[in-house]
């Protein structure tokens, strides 16, 4: 792809394009904004590299030899590819595969459920929901409505939030960044940053309605979401269950950031 070639040319000019096991990769320091964990991000690697255990080992050796000390390596792997230990999934991006259901299709929603565009008056609730989502993804972290990660989303010029209501009461949201671009492929997409519904009685129906509304509102632009895989075993199992449910439905794995100890 032309965009990937241009990306690699820019990486080479910046001194970030290197080689391990005969395969090219692009890496730079990128610490976790929520945990402060020191990381080296391999934003691109030759698609053949993850399939070779020797190349994966050579990659880790090359990074340790050529960079300052870190806590972990993050490797972007395209598609639903599984890596051997000590690699573990950290952040999986999924892509919505189907058109929104026509009105009236599927299981009828509970009475009184509707989705509407957010207004500025909804922003405090949206901030609270986003903060809760980040706390769920990063257990033990103190993330409030004023956290930079929350503010960056709420203040983004392409941010669109949708509100699910039951009998006029807001019960949840979907927040989308509608004009995003993949730094490697150049593809433009919409990123579903979060869906969160407080009321467990309508949660499944409300999330489905919010996602359908997000697909419609982004006008056919690819809609991508993500699943964070926490470190704690119980939370990690919950994230895996969420991912399995998404892939069994209307989503497929686009790429995953795999983590390995330094």
Automatic annotation (TrEMBL):
<dbReference type="InterPro" id="IPR000182">
    <property type="entry name" value="GNAT_dom"/>
</dbReference>
<dbReference type="InterPro" id="IPR016181">
    <property type="entry name" value="Acyl_CoA_acyltransferase"/>
</dbReference>
<feature type="region of interest" description="Disordered">
    <location>
        <begin position="96"/>
        <end position="120"/>
    </location>
</feature>
<protein>
    <recommendedName>
        <fullName>N-acetyltransferase domain-containing protein</fullName>
    </recommendedName>
</protein>
<feature type="compositionally biased region" description="Pro residues">
    <location>
        <begin position="101"/>
        <end position="111"/>
    </location>
</feature>
<feature type="domain" description="N-acetyltransferase">
    <location>
        <begin position="113"/>
        <end position="262"/>
    </location>
</feature>
